[in-house]
Every structure is written in C-alpha cells, then in structure tokens.
Amino acid sequence: MEEAFVYIIKSSLVLALFVAAFMLLVRGEAYHSTKRGLLLFSALFSVLLPSLFFGVTIDEPAAYLSTQIDYYVKDGRVWEDANYYVQYFAEPTLWQKIADLTLADWITYIYFAVASIMLLRLLLVYAAAIMTMHELKQRSIARYRMRGVRLYVHDDEERLPFSWFGWIFVSRADIKDGGREILCHEKMHIRCRHSFDVLLADILVALQWFNPLAWKLKTLLQELHEYEADAKVVASGINVGKYKRAIIREAVGKETYAVVCGFNNYIIKKRIFMMTKENKSVWQYAKALYILPLAFLTACSFSSNDGSGSAANDSIYAAVDTYPQFIGGVDALQDYLIKNVNYPEDARLKRQEGRVLVDFVVEVDGSVTEVTVAQSSGFEALDAEAKRVVSSMSKWTPGVYKGVAVRTKFTQPVVFRLDVPTADAIDVQPEFPGGMDALVSYMSKGVKYPEDCKEGGIEGRVLVEFIVAADGKVCNVLVAESSNNSSLDAEAVRVVTSMPNWKPGKKDGKEVDVRFCLPVVFKL
Question: What is the pTM of this model?
Fold first, then answer.
C-alpha cells in the first residue's frame, strides 16, 4: 500500500510540473487541438513515467545477503527435526494496533480513504448522469441517427444542450432557435472524442485529490473542448455572428452535468475572444515544443535513481542482474572454506562458537576487496579468522548489471562450530531437569515477548542451538536459524542461556558434550 502511495506522489509531482508549464507558456495561444494534445500527453506521461522506474533498486551501498547455505566448520550440523515446540501467545488489543501506526501509516490510510470516497463519488455522479440521459431518451419526442451520432430531442427547456460519447441531447426549443449551430457544436465534441478526456481527467482528480493542478487539468481540458469545438464549427462554414448569438442565448439559466460536453456559460467571453484570435508568429507555435525538453529532463531525473551506470564509475551495487560467484560455484566455495578455515586454538579451548557475517566487494576484475565484519560472532579470534579466510579468496566471477560488469557488495556467512556429537549420536540424551513438561513450562514462563515486536505485530520462529556440556551447563548458545528479527532472536538466545543445568548426555557410560537444538516460536 505504501509503495502505491509513493507512486501516486511521484505521478502527481510530474503532472503538476507539466500543467504549470502549460499554463505559463501556451495557455493563451489559439492552436487548441495542439494544446489539448499537450495536456493529454502530460496526463498520460505522469501516469506512465513513475511506473517505468517503480520498484527499481536504488544504487546505494547495501549488503546483498547470500542465499547460499551457511558453511559450517568441522563436522557439526543443525538438526532438521525440532525436539520441542514452544509457543508464546500475546494478543495485542485493537487500541494497541492503532497506537502502533506511524505517521507514514496514517498519511497512507487517509490518502486511500479519501481516494476511495472520491472514486465512489465519481461513480455516483456518472450513474446519475446516465440515469438522467436514459430518462431523457424515454421522454424524447424525436430521435435521429446521423453518421454514428444519435440525437434525442426532449421538452426540458431548462436543460442546456449536451453530448456524451455518441449521444446528443437537445430541447425542442433549442432546435427551433439556433438548432443548426447547436447541433454542429455538439457533433464537433463527439468527433473530437472529448468525453474520453473528461473521463480521464475525472479519474486523475479522484486519485490525486490532494493535487490542485490535477483539478486545474480538468478545467483546462473543458475550456479547450469548447475552444476546439468552436473553431471547428466556424471552420465548417457556420455564420460566425449567428453562432456567437447562439452561445450567448444558451448561456443563462440552464443546467447540465460536469461529466458531459456542451455549451458552458462560465467561459462565454473567452470563447468569443478565442474565435477571433489568430497565431501570427512562429514563436507562438514554437512555445509548444516546451514539452520535449521537459519530458526529457523529467525522464532523466527518474532514471538517474535506477542504479544504472557504467563499469568505469566507483558505485557499489546492492542488486544486479547476475550476482558474483566463486569460481567453481557453491561446492567449490564450501570446499575452500572447509579446507582453509583454521579454528583458533584459544577459541577451541574456551568452547567458543559463533557465526560471522563478512562483507566484501567483488571488483570488476573479480578480486575481493574492502573486507569487513558486518556482524560479529562475539569473539575476536573467530571474527579475525573469518575476515582472514575471506580476504585470501581467489578471484570471483564479477556481478553484471545491464550487460556491464560492476562492483558488487556481497555478504558471506562463516559459522564456527566445534566437533561435538548431536543427541542422536550418543547413548543417553541430555535432559532438562524435570523432563519435557518442565522444559515447556520453563519456556512458557521465561519467554518475554519483545515490546517492539508485540507493538509491530511481528511473529517468527527461532531455532536456537547450544551445547549441553559434560557438567550439564548450557553453553555456546547461538541462533542456528533466524526469525529475521533481531529482537526475537535475542530473546530466544537469552531465555536459553538462562536455563538451569541439564542432566548431561552419556556415551559409553561417560558424560559428554552434546549439541542440542530447540525451536522457539513467537506467535501473537
């Protein structure tokens, strides 16, 4: 929803720019068909331009998280089957959900609420107009068909003559008094397809109700419809004097609908003036070319944010068409890490384990540069070893964007794990004091749903891995499978770390270290 709102804002800015330029440069000129084309182009361009670049990744230095598996050092592994399934329920109230809405959420919801009302209002206006036209058809005292146009003559003398798509409605009194001029005017509206313009403008106004220049676009189009129809009527050979008198005669005391085309009394003076105005200089016509540089500059301003560029610049790309790859593929990378990672001896003695996220840049020539630790394991020795092994990598196949090799940001996880047997590889499995029921009770009481996640309605499942040592202590607690939310992950690690000593596992009659996995599910 927020993305759609951003699109509307971009579209409204483009439309406002083009309408403002139109009013400043060519509004008073007399080439009405050309001006109408400029306004229609402005409306369509404002709708299409943002959509062409909508959702394109912006060229900002940001890490691309590898979709490859984590590479575990030595022989440790994560259990795929869960031993226990612990859930914590905390249902937020309606008022809590409302209180959690940000300013951006409120703005977005208000926009869509008003836009929905405007669209509903538009449907009702069109429905009322169609019902009135249907009623006039039923009450018509005469009907004529001429070259795809249907004429309905009725007795409602208070209603202005009007046309809608292929229909013309006119009173018998108007036919008797200036009927030729009136019918010619309405036929020009139909031939120029002005009803489609009005429909397009109404939809734009409903969607961009907050944009005053969207409302102005509709007014400008309605003015141009009258000017264009007048010009074509005069060009058809109708007597100008009689036509002007017909316009003035129809200007007072009658009603029509805003969604139809017809004699419009609020611009009578302008219409009469425009009938006699001529474009005399080349400059007056040349001003209409403003649309070309304006469209070009607007398109450039949007495309400048699409992450495009050449290999010659120093931009680092977060997303590309083809991502960098270790030469030889995933298997070769896994083999390289297993063979080249040296588990720090001090970390081994202290039973230190952890997962290190290492950021680096794959250059255009495939070399690895700018190696940094993006997420620490919490142990300096492990972080240093992960950074060293990544820095020592051979060249990669570079990332490619729009057919050009580019500098690409990449993130590689390196997980350090001790060679500790899992529960299915020993004789007696470790046990929480009191058994499974006691473990479920401990987790249910000990888990504290993070407030930020509760307020944001965030749920998730965290797979926590730890070692039950030979003395029963719980150590080396880490997130084996993240919920993709740091608060949930941290709470799962905290509650597991706080566990009391377990009854240790045994192999060949001796207490041994055992690797264990426990899923913690957070559910609102």
Answer: 0.52
